[in-house]
User: Fold this.
Amino acid sequence: MFAVIKTGGKQYRVAADDVLKIEKVAGEVGDIVTLDSVLAFGQGDDVTVGAPFVEGATVAVEVLEQGKAKTVIAFKKRRRQNSRRKRGHRQLLTTVRVSEILTGGAKPSKKAAPKKAEAKEAGAEAAAE
Assistant:
């Protein structure tokens, strides 16, 4: 099954277990985030297209990494005017893995990975018992 999602002003064709870099999405590493802007989904010739979005369809993604893209240099120069400007930009990116494509208003089946601090506390409680 595949889906076409819209995020960060761009459209992506995704399937389960795809890893992609999208513009920054709120969430920490290990969190499960749902993307609601599904333009189309289907399998083979059976494709459902929204107008503009498909009602009740979402894509659950797991946040793998938060980071920045490489620096893009915007250099402007006006010849013979002793005028130039150099600016750099690093876009904030989130690396995500598509965990599942949900239809009909279903909720994600996979839970977010436990945080390191919570895992240590749970381990300490289990050892105390």
